Amino acid sequence: MMRIELFLDTSPVEELLVYFKKQDPAIKHKLLNNRGIRYMLYHHNLSSRTFLKILQSAVTGGKESFMGAAAMLHRDILKYIEKHYEYEKLVNEIKASWSKVRGKVSAKVEGYLPDWAEAQVKVYLVPVGDDAYGVNPIDTNAVVINMRYFKSLEVFIEALAHEVHHKALWKHREAYARLTRNGPRNLRGVFEVINEVVGEGVASIISPNIAPFQKYRKIKNKGNSLKENYRSVEEAIIMVYREEMPGEEAVSKLYPNMGPIYMVGIDMALTIEKEYGTWALREVLDDPSVYKFFKMFNQASSKTVYKYTSQTLKIIKQLQQRMQQIL
Fold first, then answer.
1. Domain boundary pick from 145, 168, 191
2. End position of a domain, from candidates 103, 133, 168
3. Which of 22, 61, 117, 248 has the smallest CB count inside 10 Å?
4. Quick one: 8 and 152 in the same domain?
5. Is the pTM of this model over 0.85?
6. Residue 302: what pLDDT?
């Protein structure tokens, strides 16, 4: 029986605001023990010391020069200080509407999940950093959302639905863990690539007003751009299977900036839904190896911009057979 439970923690954004208003050292220590802020720092690979330097510079108008993620956080904090009233308004709106938010998120994701799907998600609101993400290595139930990217309640709901959909597919995480323990390295790498394609693809079509789907709309009719994205994904699958490239490296090349993993996943999910109906997406997600997803896509109308080779389907079929042995 499907079960989706959502819990809200607004303390990261609220405690930051209190600190900026009072600049009390005791509050600074409290910030460093705030779970949502810890997760945000972990995601961006920043230390407590660096975060304190960023805060100090932001409140004193210091001229320190930061690089990479630290520079992004410093810039975001300055914007937060400048426009904190807008953030307060949205936080209050989310808190007041949380029951409605939970209902809408559940309604969005449930139509695109198998019956066994289950998620107990704690949502941490922050005002800085990347837009929305999980921190699976340390907490599989957490979702961190940067409010700066979602300035209306409806777009916030879509962003949250996208992340909740990922969390609900717990069998896919189990499959990866078992492959890590008992599967060959090349098949584990193949799964890392194709599971991202499927997961980001389906999660993105239920959230058409956030960035991945917006990018897809721009490129889908742009010459051979989409076809090149497909080719990049297929070449990566084959190279990983041949152990010419680790799965992690393939994902690191195809994932950033809503790259081929997103664009191909969205197009495949839309193709399956258009050809067979939403029920088909639920059915293919029931297979943790995601072989059914690729097979059903290849069997869809000949109007698709790309077809995977028999070689690639055989590789993914081999992955499915291995999973059936270890699950």
1. 168
2. 168
3. 61
4. yes
5. yes
6. 66
Read off the DSSP letter of residue 121.
E
Position of tokens 């499907």?
A: 2
Q: For the segment 167-186, what is each residue's pLDDT rounded down to a tens digit?
A: 999 999 999 999 989 889 99
Residue 132 CA to residue 99 CA, distance in Å, equals 20
88 and 182 inside one domain: no
Indicate whether 199 and 260 sit together in one domain: yes
Question: Per the structure, how many domains does the chain have?
Answer: 2
Q: Concatenated DSSP letters for 23-42?
A: --HHHHHHHHT-HHHHHHHH
The residue range of the domain holding 140 is: 1-168
The CA-atom distances, in angstroms, between 143 and each of 10, 73, 214 are: 12, 18, 22
Residue 132 has a pLDDT of 93
- 227-243 confidence digits (pLDDT tens): 999 999 999 999 999 99
Residues 322 and 233 in one domain: yes
Q: What is the tens place of the pLDDT at every residue in 207-266?
A: 999 999 999 999 988 878 999 999 999 999 999 999 999 999 999 999 999 999 999 999
* Bridge partners, residue 122, by sequence: 7, 142
Instruction: Break the chain down into helix, strand, coil percent, rounded to 5.
Output: 70, 10, 25
Q: Are the CB atoms for 98 and 121 separated by under 8 Å?
A: no
296 and 256 assigned to the same domain: yes
Structure tokens, 51: 């975060």
Residue 146 binned pLDDT confidence (cut-offs 50, 70, 90): very high
71 compared with 149, residue with greater pLDDT: 71
State the sign of the Cα–Cα–Cα–Cα dihedral 53, 58, 59, 64.
positive
State the pLDDT at residue 192: 96
